[in-house]
Amino acid sequence: MRIKEERLDSTEILNRFLAGIERRAFRMARLATSDDDEALDLVQDVMLSFVSRYAGKPEGEWAPLFYRTLQNRIVDWHRRTGVRNRFRAWFGGGGEGEEESDPLENLADNSSPDPLVSLQRSDLGEAIESAVRRLPLRQRQAFLLRAWEGLDTAQTAFVMGCSEGSVKTHYSRAIHTLRDFLKEYAP
Hints:
Layout: H1 2-33, H2 36-54, H3 62-90, H4 115-134, H5 137-148, H6 153-160, H7 164-181
GO molecular function: DNA binding; sigma factor activity
Pfam families: Sigma70_r4_2
Organism: Geobacter hydrogenophilus
């Protein structure tokens, strides 16, 4: 009976961890893939893999392990996509078609009393997302893990599979590049 209660508690803790990390992981995957469906598939795949492999690990190790798994899947996705695109080009498969717009994105946001403030926030958000997308993959990984997820240098190095010095270099370059991309939004 006691074992069942402990297992329920650990399952509940794992579910809370995954629920808390889900949105941020989706955002990271969407920045990497530029496709909501692909990003959702990646995150779901990572969550299933994470649970099957690391559920028994101590809770303090979950975040770095999860992000390492996510980053590995993102790199794999980029490789597969590159190979698919080469085959499509060789065999005459055209480019991607017109993207369908989401009708909900065209609705007015009534939560802000000042439309100008909403427009400025929206423009800044889109500019930041675009700037982060334009970063090279390793710089994007270092920036997202350090700035958005709050991992320290050692945890980020573990997730990225590189040295702490390499993380510092990638992160610094990402910050400088983002400042250049976003200088028109600086106060």
